[in-house]
Amino acid sequence: MKKNIIITAGPTNEKLDEVMKITNMSTGALGATIAKDFIEYNGDDIDKLYYVSTKLTRKPLIESSKLEFITIESTDDLLNVLRSILTSENIDVVIQSAAIGDYKARYSITGSMLASEIANFAFNNNLSREDLENGILNIIKNPSMRVSTEHKISSYEPDLMFMLDLTPKVIKNIKKWYPNTDLYGFKLLDGVSKEELIEVAAKLRESTGAKAIVANDKSKISAGKHPAYFVGEEGVEFEVQTKEEIAKTLRRMIF
User: Fold this and answer.
1) Dihedrals φ, ψ of 209, to 5°?
2) The pTM of the whole model exceeds 0.85
3) pLDDT tens digit string along 148-178?
4) Helix 243-254 to helix 29-42 angle, to the nearest 10 degrees?
5) Tens digits of per-residue pLDDT, 245-254?
6) Which residues of the chain have pLDDT under 50?
7) Over the range 181-205, which residues count as b (16 or more CB within 10 Å of their CB) and which as e?
8) Of 78, 92, 144, 221, whose CB has the highest number of CB atoms within 10 Å?
9) What class is the 3-102+167-254 domain?
10) Number of Cβ within a 10 Å radius of residue 100
11) What is the domain partition of the chain in residue ranges?
Protein backbone atom coordinates (compact mmCIF):
# COMPACT_ATOMS: atom_id res chain seq x y z
CA MET A 1 0.00 0.00 0.00
CA LYS A 2 1.39 3.41 -0.95
CA LYS A 3 2.23 5.81 1.86
CA ASN A 4 1.25 9.41 2.54
CA ILE A 5 4.09 11.25 4.22
CA ILE A 6 4.65 14.68 5.76
CA ILE A 7 8.16 16.10 6.07
CA THR A 8 8.64 19.43 7.84
CA ALA A 9 11.92 21.25 7.24
CA GLY A 10 13.85 24.43 7.91
CA PRO A 11 13.19 27.19 10.46
CA THR A 12 10.04 28.93 11.56
CA ASN A 13 9.86 32.74 11.50
CA GLU A 14 8.17 34.79 14.22
CA LYS A 15 7.30 38.42 13.43
CA LEU A 16 8.54 41.25 15.64
CA ASP A 17 6.95 43.87 13.39
CA GLU A 18 6.16 44.14 9.69
CA VAL A 19 9.87 43.89 8.81
CA MET A 20 11.78 42.17 11.62
CA LYS A 21 11.45 38.56 12.68
CA ILE A 22 12.97 35.95 14.99
CA THR A 23 14.35 32.95 13.17
CA ASN A 24 17.25 30.49 13.44
CA MET A 25 20.15 29.23 11.34
CA SER A 26 18.45 26.12 9.94
CA THR A 27 18.51 25.84 6.14
CA GLY A 28 16.29 22.79 5.72
CA ALA A 29 19.13 20.86 4.05
CA LEU A 30 18.41 17.75 6.11
CA GLY A 31 14.69 17.73 5.34
CA ALA A 32 15.43 18.29 1.65
CA THR A 33 17.91 15.39 1.66
CA ILE A 34 15.34 13.09 3.26
CA ALA A 35 12.58 14.03 0.81
CA LYS A 36 14.85 13.59 -2.21
CA ASP A 37 16.05 10.20 -0.96
CA PHE A 38 12.49 8.95 -0.42
CA ILE A 39 11.30 10.04 -3.87
CA GLU A 40 14.43 8.79 -5.61
CA TYR A 41 14.56 5.31 -4.08
CA ASN A 42 10.98 4.57 -2.98
CA GLY A 43 8.89 6.89 -5.13
CA ASP A 44 6.72 4.02 -6.33
CA ASP A 45 5.75 3.33 -2.72
CA ILE A 46 4.61 6.93 -2.10
CA ASP A 47 1.18 8.31 -2.88
CA LYS A 48 1.82 11.86 -1.62
CA LEU A 49 4.76 13.54 0.11
CA TYR A 50 3.91 16.88 1.70
CA TYR A 51 6.97 19.08 2.17
CA VAL A 52 6.11 21.80 4.70
CA SER A 53 8.57 24.68 5.07
CA THR A 54 9.10 28.42 4.88
CA LYS A 55 9.56 30.10 1.51
CA LEU A 56 13.37 30.30 1.67
CA THR A 57 13.94 26.84 3.12
CA ARG A 58 15.97 24.51 0.91
CA LYS A 59 13.80 22.25 -1.26
CA PRO A 60 14.54 18.71 -2.48
CA LEU A 61 16.38 18.80 -5.81
CA ILE A 62 14.10 16.37 -7.60
CA GLU A 63 10.94 16.70 -9.66
CA SER A 64 7.98 14.48 -8.91
CA SER A 65 4.21 14.59 -9.09
CA LYS A 66 4.28 12.94 -5.66
CA LEU A 67 5.70 16.10 -4.06
CA GLU A 68 3.41 18.83 -2.76
CA PHE A 69 5.04 21.93 -1.32
CA ILE A 70 3.24 23.79 1.45
CA THR A 71 4.63 27.15 2.57
CA ILE A 72 4.36 28.29 6.17
CA GLU A 73 5.91 31.17 8.11
CA SER A 74 5.36 30.85 11.84
CA THR A 75 5.02 28.07 14.36
CA ASP A 76 1.28 28.71 14.47
CA ASP A 77 1.15 28.35 10.67
CA LEU A 78 2.91 24.99 10.95
CA LEU A 79 0.52 23.86 13.67
CA ASN A 80 -2.50 24.80 11.58
CA VAL A 81 -1.20 23.04 8.46
CA LEU A 82 -0.36 19.85 10.33
CA ARG A 83 -3.68 19.86 12.16
CA SER A 84 -5.56 20.35 8.89
CA ILE A 85 -3.79 17.51 7.07
CA LEU A 86 -3.71 15.06 9.98
CA THR A 87 -7.40 15.49 10.81
CA SER A 88 -8.59 15.20 7.21
CA GLU A 89 -6.30 12.62 5.58
CA ASN A 90 -4.71 9.28 6.34
CA ILE A 91 -1.05 10.09 6.93
CA ASP A 92 1.21 7.10 7.39
CA VAL A 93 4.39 8.93 8.41
CA VAL A 94 5.32 12.34 9.82
CA ILE A 95 8.98 13.34 9.88
CA GLN A 96 9.22 16.43 12.06
CA SER A 97 12.65 17.79 11.11
CA ALA A 98 11.77 21.50 11.14
CA ALA A 99 13.86 23.60 13.51
CA ILE A 100 10.98 25.27 15.28
CA GLY A 101 11.88 28.47 17.12
CA ASP A 102 11.49 28.43 20.88
CA TYR A 103 10.16 31.97 21.20
CA LYS A 104 7.74 34.43 19.62
CA ALA A 105 7.07 38.08 20.40
CA ARG A 106 4.38 39.10 22.89
CA TYR A 107 4.95 42.86 22.75
CA SER A 108 7.60 45.55 22.23
CA ILE A 109 8.31 48.52 24.48
CA THR A 110 11.01 51.14 25.07
CA GLY A 111 13.04 51.33 28.24
CA SER A 112 11.63 54.79 29.03
CA MET A 113 8.04 53.54 28.69
CA LEU A 114 8.69 50.63 31.02
CA ALA A 115 10.63 52.74 33.53
CA SER A 116 7.87 55.35 33.60
CA GLU A 117 5.12 52.82 34.24
CA ILE A 118 7.12 51.09 36.99
CA ALA A 119 8.06 54.40 38.61
CA ASN A 120 4.44 55.59 38.66
CA PHE A 121 3.31 52.34 40.21
CA ALA A 122 6.03 52.41 42.89
CA PHE A 123 5.61 56.15 43.67
CA ASN A 124 1.83 56.01 44.03
CA ASN A 125 1.61 52.91 46.20
CA ASN A 126 2.93 52.29 49.70
CA LEU A 127 3.58 48.57 49.35
CA SER A 128 5.54 45.84 51.00
CA ARG A 129 8.59 44.52 49.16
CA GLU A 130 6.67 41.40 48.10
CA ASP A 131 3.70 43.38 46.77
CA LEU A 132 6.05 45.78 45.01
CA GLU A 133 7.88 42.92 43.30
CA ASN A 134 4.60 41.30 42.24
CA GLY A 135 3.27 44.61 40.93
CA ILE A 136 6.40 45.29 38.91
CA LEU A 137 6.33 41.75 37.53
CA ASN A 138 2.71 42.23 36.44
CA ILE A 139 3.66 45.44 34.65
CA ILE A 140 6.55 43.68 32.88
CA LYS A 141 4.22 40.87 31.82
CA ASN A 142 1.47 43.18 30.60
CA PRO A 143 2.37 46.90 30.42
CA SER A 144 -0.24 49.45 29.44
CA MET A 145 2.22 51.29 27.15
CA ARG A 146 3.63 49.47 24.15
CA VAL A 147 5.36 50.22 20.85
CA SER A 148 3.02 49.50 17.95
CA THR A 149 4.12 46.57 15.76
CA GLU A 150 1.38 47.01 13.15
CA HIS A 151 3.95 48.67 10.89
CA LYS A 152 7.74 48.84 10.79
CA ILE A 153 9.16 50.02 14.11
CA SER A 154 11.21 53.19 13.76
CA SER A 155 14.93 52.68 13.19
CA TYR A 156 15.55 55.37 15.82
CA GLU A 157 13.48 53.91 18.68
CA PRO A 158 15.71 54.14 21.80
CA ASP A 159 16.14 51.28 24.26
CA LEU A 160 13.79 49.02 22.34
CA MET A 161 12.82 45.83 24.17
CA PHE A 162 10.77 42.78 23.25
CA MET A 163 8.91 40.48 25.60
CA LEU A 164 8.91 36.91 24.30
CA ASP A 165 6.54 33.99 24.81
CA LEU A 166 7.29 30.33 24.34
CA THR A 167 6.05 28.83 21.08
CA PRO A 168 3.87 25.71 21.27
CA LYS A 169 5.62 22.33 21.04
CA VAL A 170 4.46 21.06 17.66
CA ILE A 171 5.75 17.51 17.96
CA LYS A 172 3.67 16.85 21.09
CA ASN A 173 0.41 17.41 19.16
CA ILE A 174 1.02 15.19 16.14
CA LYS A 175 -0.03 11.86 17.63
CA LYS A 176 -2.99 13.55 19.34
CA TRP A 177 -4.34 14.69 15.98
CA TYR A 178 -3.71 11.37 14.22
CA PRO A 179 -2.70 8.52 16.57
CA ASN A 180 -2.15 6.05 13.73
CA THR A 181 0.71 7.93 12.10
CA ASP A 182 4.31 6.83 12.59
CA LEU A 183 6.16 9.82 13.99
CA TYR A 184 9.88 10.47 13.67
CA GLY A 185 11.33 13.52 15.38
CA PHE A 186 14.65 15.27 15.81
CA LYS A 187 16.41 16.69 18.85
CA LEU A 188 19.35 19.09 18.57
CA LEU A 189 21.51 19.98 21.57
CA ASP A 190 24.86 21.73 21.67
CA GLY A 191 28.06 20.64 23.39
CA VAL A 192 26.60 17.95 25.62
CA SER A 193 27.76 14.45 26.45
CA LYS A 194 26.56 11.49 24.40
CA GLU A 195 24.74 10.19 27.48
CA GLU A 196 22.82 13.43 28.00
CA LEU A 197 21.92 13.70 24.32
CA ILE A 198 20.52 10.18 24.24
CA GLU A 199 18.70 10.63 27.56
CA VAL A 200 16.96 13.82 26.36
CA ALA A 201 16.02 12.18 23.05
CA ALA A 202 14.61 9.14 24.87
CA LYS A 203 12.41 11.34 27.06
CA LEU A 204 11.16 13.22 23.99
CA ARG A 205 10.36 9.96 22.21
CA GLU A 206 8.37 8.72 25.21
CA SER A 207 6.45 11.97 25.70
CA THR A 208 5.48 12.31 22.03
CA GLY A 209 4.83 8.69 21.09
CA ALA A 210 7.44 8.84 18.32
CA LYS A 211 8.85 5.64 16.89
CA ALA A 212 12.31 7.21 17.01
CA ILE A 213 14.05 10.48 17.73
CA VAL A 214 17.12 11.40 15.70
CA ALA A 215 19.50 13.02 18.19
CA ASN A 216 22.19 15.48 17.05
CA ASP A 217 24.85 17.58 18.78
CA LYS A 218 25.39 20.90 16.98
CA SER A 219 29.02 21.06 18.09
CA LYS A 220 29.71 17.83 16.18
CA ILE A 221 28.08 18.96 12.91
CA SER A 222 30.38 20.33 10.22
CA ALA A 223 30.67 20.42 6.43
CA GLY A 224 29.95 16.91 5.20
CA LYS A 225 29.44 15.55 8.72
CA HIS A 226 26.14 15.21 10.57
CA PRO A 227 26.55 12.61 13.34
CA ALA A 228 23.26 11.31 14.72
CA TYR A 229 21.82 8.63 16.98
CA PHE A 230 18.47 7.01 16.23
CA VAL A 231 16.90 6.60 19.66
CA GLY A 232 14.03 4.13 19.76
CA GLU A 233 12.16 2.16 22.38
CA GLU A 234 15.20 0.01 23.17
CA GLY A 235 17.71 2.87 23.14
CA VAL A 236 20.15 3.67 20.36
CA GLU A 237 19.13 1.63 17.32
CA PHE A 238 21.43 3.19 14.72
CA GLU A 239 24.39 5.56 14.66
CA VAL A 240 25.15 7.46 11.45
CA GLN A 241 27.56 10.16 10.32
CA THR A 242 25.98 12.17 7.47
CA LYS A 243 22.69 13.68 6.29
CA GLU A 244 22.59 11.07 3.52
CA GLU A 245 22.92 8.27 6.05
CA ILE A 246 20.15 9.79 8.17
CA ALA A 247 17.86 9.83 5.11
CA LYS A 248 18.82 6.28 4.10
CA THR A 249 18.24 4.95 7.63
CA LEU A 250 14.85 6.63 7.91
CA ARG A 251 13.85 5.25 4.49
CA ARG A 252 14.79 1.72 5.50
CA MET A 253 12.84 2.03 8.76
CA ILE A 254 9.71 3.28 6.98
CA PHE A 255 9.49 1.30 3.75
Assistant:
1) 75, 20
2) yes
3) 999 999 999 989 999 999 999 999 999 999 9
4) 50
5) 999 999 999 9
6) none
7) bbbbbbbbeeeeeeeebbebbbebb
8) 78
9) alpha beta
10) 21
11) 3-102+167-254, 105-165
